[in-house]
Amino acid sequence: GDEPTGRMVHATNRPKVNLVQTKSISTLKDEIVVPRGTPVTCIAGIKLQSEDVGAAIQFLEFCRSFGKICKIGKGLPEEILTDLTQLEEVSSVVANVHINLLSIIENGKDNPFDKYPSHGDEWIRKVGEYINLTLHAEDFTLRCLNQGVSGYKILNPSCKLEVLNCLCNEALSSKKLRTYIDIEDKKCMARQKIKAATRKQKELKRRHDDMTKTIKGGDIANNEEANDILSQIKEAEEIKKAARNGL
């Protein structure tokens, strides 16, 4: 046969690799030490049971978004949580937040405390009616709410938080809060338009200034592109003006 021509290529000597697994996967897993996390049990300076942290954060977020319209002023959310989770008695702030939420849900125009006195049982029983409709609560919770103040005191902090958050969720479907959300959404869109128009104006003014520097003598009165930029700047200003009217 023909003899091979050209340069012979020899395989290089490679170090031998030990393909035998020296440790099992389970052994490697055992050697990985994962630090134990610290459970978060303190929210807004309030010590809570770990199972109540999520519900507490949910309520605080509701207050942050809707506290003003729900008459939950600064410092009240924390006071409500403290009383709700640490007091057996029903404090006035706890009663008041439930009554105000009931008023929003029922679209009440009169003083809600005339209908639901904070020292009475009626507001708790009414809360029980909404809980029964919207939350698959245990019969025990509903029975306690139907008993008024005496029954409410029996509920543990977790149940009380669940009841309060359920009422907050129900309030989100009310006409008052839906209207408020729509208004806030429109304001947010208006602010975004203002920011976008401001950025556009800034860029257009920069381009106009650069053009003024490059044209001999800076006379750009008859420059079509420069006039177009000025027109766009004015248009952006009109957009900002219209958006501000929506705030």
Fold and architecture overview:
It comes from Aegilops tauschii subsp. strangulata. Pfam families: WHIM1. The structure is a single chain. The chain has helices at 25-31, 53-66, 76-86, 92-105, 112-115, 122-134, 139-146, 149-154, 157-172, 175-214, 224-245, and strands at residues 42-43, 46-47. It has 11 helices and 2 strands. A two-stranded antiparallel ribbon has the order 1-2. The chain is mainly alpha-helical and 247 residues long. It is elongated. It folds into 2 domains: 42-173, no CATH class; 178-245. A hairpin with a 2-residue loop joins strand 1 and strand 2 (46-47). The longest helix is centred in the C-terminal third of the chain and has 40 residues, at 175-214. The N and C termini lie far apart (93 Å).
Helices, strands, pairings?
Elements: H1 25-31, E1 42-43, E2 46-47, H2 53-66, H3 76-86, H4 92-105, H5 112-115, H6 122-134, H7 139-146, H8 149-154, H9 157-172, H10 175-214, H11 224-245
Antiparallel strand pairs: 1-2
Main location: nucleus
Keywords: Nucleus
InterPro entries: CDCA7/CDA7L, DDT_dom, WHIM1_dom
Please summarize what this structure is:
This protein has 247 residues and is mainly α. Helices cover 63% and strands 2% of the residues. The protein is elongated, with a radius of gyration of 34 Å.
Low-confidence stretches: 4-11
Helix/sheet category: mainly alpha
Number of structural domains: 2
Strand order in the largest sheet: 1-2
What percent strand?
Answer: under 5%
Give the distance, in angstroms, between the N- and C-terminal Cα atoms.
Answer: 93 Å
Name the helicity range.
55-70%
Main sheet overview:
2 strands, antiparallel
The H/E string reads HEEHHHHHHHHHH
Mean pLDDT: 83
Rg (CA only) = 34 Å
Number of helices: 11
